[in-house]
Amino acid sequence: MHCPFCRHPDSRVVDSRTSDDGASIRRRRQCPSCNRRFTTVETTSLSVVKRSGATEPFSRDKITGGVRKACQGRPVSEDDLALLAQKVEETLRSSGSAEIDAYEIGLAILGPLRELDEVAYLRFASVYQAFDSLEDFEAAITVLRAERAERAAARGDEPAAATHVDD
């Protein structure tokens, strides 16, 4: 690290701290030549590889924007969307890869979105997984119902009585 004051090619780290919820490291440095101190912030870069092969920097805003469309008219707050985008980014960063395929980002969104709002999940999944028939929706709803029943059984809840109305 070059000293910004005297351009000496080296510096000594005096203190290191994580910041931005662990997304970056703030280092306090001292130049051995002029003894002046300065601060650096180190972040890891995460790139998205699109279907076309082009790469672009990862953006939480793009995740929030895409999920916001699926959540339109649903009881989901901006804070909920920000938290979902943070979870997705943490999942992607934990993979240890600097380049993430766009398809993998969609997969990483599906889990947290299902927990947040099932209707929004179905909307997002129908576009992301290219549902082209009612059977695709029925299959996804069947999976959601089975997961809900498993969670209820794990909690010891009684299954809701089926209501049937005769014509």
UniProtKB/TrEMBL annotation:
GO BP annotations of the record are: negative regulation of DNA-templated transcription
Q: Which cofactor does it need?
A: Zn(2+)
Keyword Transmembrane helix part of the UniProt annotation = no
Cofactor: binding comment: Binds 1 zinc ion.
Q: Pfam families in the record, alphabetically?
A: ATP-cone, Zn_ribbon_NrdR
Write one Gene Ontology MF term: zinc ion binding
Zinc-finger ranges (unnamed): 3-34
Every copy of the ATP-cone domain together lies at 46-136
Keyword Transcription regulation part of the UniProt annotation: yes
Keywords in alphabetical order: ATP-binding, DNA-binding, Metal-binding, Nucleotide-binding, Repressor, Transcription, Transcription regulation, Zinc, Zinc-finger
Query: What family is this?
Result: Belongs to the NrdR family.
Q: What does this protein do?
A: Negatively regulates transcription of bacterial ribonucleotide reductase nrd genes and operons by binding to NrdR-boxes.
What is the protein name stated in its UniProt record?
Answer: Transcriptional repressor NrdR
Q: Which organism is it from?
A: Cellulomonas gilvus (strain ATCC 13127 / NRRL B-14078)
